[in-house]
């Protein structure tokens, strides 16, 4: 058997073609509007990602792959290693639309490469990327250090009609890096070109907190133009420690300043706040004034600690249609929160869940994989129900519990009974729909009790059977304006 190094180029092309076909999702035949080829492997951090694992074997194999532009429509460059052999990928892709991902695979596992070396590699790639931004469908920077990130001004200096996703994030905030700040000042040169730029396809902007701060300082008019042009994109802000309010703190970015900035961005489809912290101990609630009113369609809070959320909800009055709280620690809140729809996921702390629910007065509550949701929490909600506070003024109140095994049907019955009692004394509506997915099997007594609630309250208890999982609004990240039509067909048979 001949070694691989002796295989002719024609045979290598056939082998690489088979590998490429295996890496692509099947094309739907007969579609009126056929979708472009998409990559099956979405793990950008995999060392076996095609064609990069093949291209790094030797120069000859790289030269063979370079002749096939369709194999370079997704460019993934790992800055933990020397990316020089793959920098030709921008030209190898010819004029095709491309996804560009610049990542640090070691940072995902907690490794800390040398900051200066990462800076140099990221900027070498960025200089090659800039002429090709017009044909990018996605741009991702996920590196170790904030000092390695480019400013947004360098990306938005030209139109990119097909750009659907922009993610510029880091794992470590390494201070007020002069390099990036000077580049932010340089971006002002391009602020005057924004009226001619177009980003109509943009769906997601995910940035570090420092980039968001720099963008607001250096290109405010450009940002508001972008907001007016694109009405349906999501903004994700992550990885930042806000500085303390002080008379001599003129340069630091404080939570108060952030909330004032955020209050002006009401056109976003969704704002996601993740891994944001305070660089100082939490202050007394009594000393904090109301800073801003924030009106959003959807607000997602993810991986946030109690100190940050205590000040966040004290300094701002949040008005949104849909609030999503995922993996957060919730302190006692001084102000009520009133989004009609509340989604809570992966919450293990019972006190956090009680604090959140006791401050909420909406109409649709969804709990997904929350070990904290137990009988004690239901009894707290039952106490609220007696006062008519839970699902207040809701004609179509909904409670959806998905994958929360630590509560009993008896506690749920107490909640419903408390609500019925409150309906007799006050002018409130019943909970219209209750859906439990992956719950323990019901006893015959519980089945009869829940069945007798219909048609005032529809209870669907789906149990552990395969396929009987309630449609979760979180699966497509859409706000649950109504429960999907499938739910209406469960009716009493779901019991």
The amount of helix comes to 25-40%
Uncertain ranges: 465-495
Ends distance: 64 Å
Radius of gyration: 26 Å
Descriptive report:
This protein has 495 residues and is α/β, with parallel strands linked by helices. Helices cover 31% and strands 20% of the residues. The protein has 17 helices and 14 strands. The protein has helices at 9-23, 52-55, 59-66, 89-92, 105-108, 115-129, 152-155, 178-186, 209-218, 220-229, 255-262, 306-315, 350-358, 375-386, 409-425, 444-451, 485-490, and strands spanning 74-78, 98-103, 136-145, 165-172, 204-208, 234-242, 270-278, 292-302, 316-326, 341-345, 364-368, 397-402, 431-437, 458-461. A 14-stranded parallel beta sheet has the order 1-2-3-4-5-6-7-8-9-10-11-12-13-14. Helix 14 (375-386) links the parallel strand 11 (364-368) and strand 12. Helix 13 packs parallel to helix 14 and helix 14 (375-386) packs parallel to helix 15.
Layout of helices and strands, plus pairs?
Layout: H1 9-23, H2 52-55, H3 59-66, E1 74-78, H4 89-92, E2 98-103, H5 105-108, H6 115-129, E3 136-145, H7 152-155, E4 165-172, H8 178-186, E5 204-208, H9 209-218, H10 220-229, E6 234-242, H11 255-262, E7 270-278, E8 292-302, H12 306-315, E9 316-326, E10 341-345, H13 350-358, E11 364-368, H14 375-386, E12 397-402, H15 409-425, E13 431-437, H16 444-451, E14 458-461, H17 485-490
Helix pairs in contact: 13-14, 14-15
Keywords:
single chain, 495 residues, alpha/beta, 14-stranded parallel beta sheet, 17 helices, 20% strand
């Amino acid at each position: 058997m001949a070694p691989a190094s002796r295989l002719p180029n024609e045979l290598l092309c056939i082998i690489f073609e088979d590998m490429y076909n295996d890496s692509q999702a099947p094309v739907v035949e007969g579609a009126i509007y056929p979708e472009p080829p998409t990559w099956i492997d979405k793990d950008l951090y995999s060392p076996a990602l095609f064609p990069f694992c093949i291209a790094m074997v030797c120069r000859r194999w790289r030269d063979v792959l370079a002749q096939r532009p369709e194999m370079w429509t997704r460019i993934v460059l790992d800055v933990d290693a020397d990316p020089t052999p793959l920098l030709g990928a921008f030209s190898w892709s010819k004029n095709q639309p491309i996804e560009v991902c610049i990542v640090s695979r070691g940072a995902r596992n907690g490794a800390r490469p040398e900051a200066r070396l990462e800076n140099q590699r990221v900027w070498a790639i960025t200089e090659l990327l800039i002429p090709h931004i017009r044909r990018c469908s996605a741009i991702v920077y996920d590196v170790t250090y904030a000092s390695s990130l480019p400013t947004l001004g360098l990306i938005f200096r030209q139109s990119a009609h097909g750009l659907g996703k922009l993610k510029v994030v880091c794992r470590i905030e390494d201070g007020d890096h002069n390099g990036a700040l000077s580049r932010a000042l340089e971006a002002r040169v391009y602020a005057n070109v924004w009226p001619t730029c177009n980003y109509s396809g943009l769906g997601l902007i995910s940035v570090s907190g420092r980039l968001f701060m720099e963008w607001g300082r250096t290109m405010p008019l450009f940002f508001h133009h972008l907001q007016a042009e694109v009405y349906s994109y999501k903004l994700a802000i992550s990885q930042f420690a806000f500085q303390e309010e002080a008379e001599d703190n003129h340069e630091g970015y404080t939570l108060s300043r952030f909330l004032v900035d955020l209050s002006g961005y009401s056109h976003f489809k969704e704002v996601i706040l993740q891994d944001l912290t305070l660089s100082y101990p939490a202050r007394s609630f009594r000393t904090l004034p109301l800073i801003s009113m924030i009106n959003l369609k959807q607000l997602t809070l993810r991986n946030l600690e109690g100190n940050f959320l205590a000040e966040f909800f004290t300094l701002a009055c949040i008005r949104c249609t849909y609030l999503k709280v995922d993996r957060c620690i919730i302190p006692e809140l001084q102000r009520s929160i009133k989004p009609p729809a509340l989604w809570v996921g992966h919450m293990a702390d019972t006190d956090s869940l009680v604090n959140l629910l006791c401050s909420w007065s909406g109409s649709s509550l969804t709990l997904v994989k929350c070990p904290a949701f137990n009988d004690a929490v239901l009894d707290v909600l039952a106490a609220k129900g007696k006062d008519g506070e839970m699902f207040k003024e809701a004609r179509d109140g909904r409670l959806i519990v998905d994958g929360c095994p630590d509560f009993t049907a008896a506690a749920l019955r107490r909640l419903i009974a408390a609500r019925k009692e409150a309906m007799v004394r006050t002018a409130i509506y019943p909970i219209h729909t209750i859906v439990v997915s992956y719950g323990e099997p019901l006893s015959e007594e519980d089945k009869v009790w829940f069945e007798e609630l219909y048609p005032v309250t529809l209870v669907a208890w789906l149990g552990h059977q395969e396929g009987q999982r309630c449609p979760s609004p979180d699966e497509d990240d859409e706000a649950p304006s109504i429960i999907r039509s499938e739910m209406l067909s469960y009716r009493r048979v779901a019991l």
